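#struct-help
A.M.: can someone run this one for me? Single chain, 108 residues.
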Amino acid sequence: GTQFDRLWTVDRDFPLEVIARRGQWLKTRDFLDSVGWIFAPLTDGRPSAIVRVDEARVRSGPSLRHRVRFLATWGESFRVLSQRGPWVRIDDPDNGRGWIHQSLVWTP
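D.P.: on it. Structure tokens below:
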């Protein structure tokens, strides 16, 4: 509810795992195991991922053979478009689309 203190603010495409529901409120957990509540209408349910390593290479295709398009750093979050095996296709508003290995990101 709005009568409680705000713990933190999340940006667009920040992944949250829903662990409980109460009316229009969702109890969520993030990639650091922090737990809090968010008003459900503020979420869109689209899949997202967050980088959990210091630096990750985002590639032009789903393998190590593809060129590196850009680097992503710890805590950057992205909308997930699809997945092929252990590779996740992401969309970054600044750098465009690319592929990142699932071991480098957290997805709920």
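A.M.: thanks! The CA atoms of residues 2 and 61 lie 44 Å apart.
D.P.: also worth noting: The chain has no helices and ten strands.
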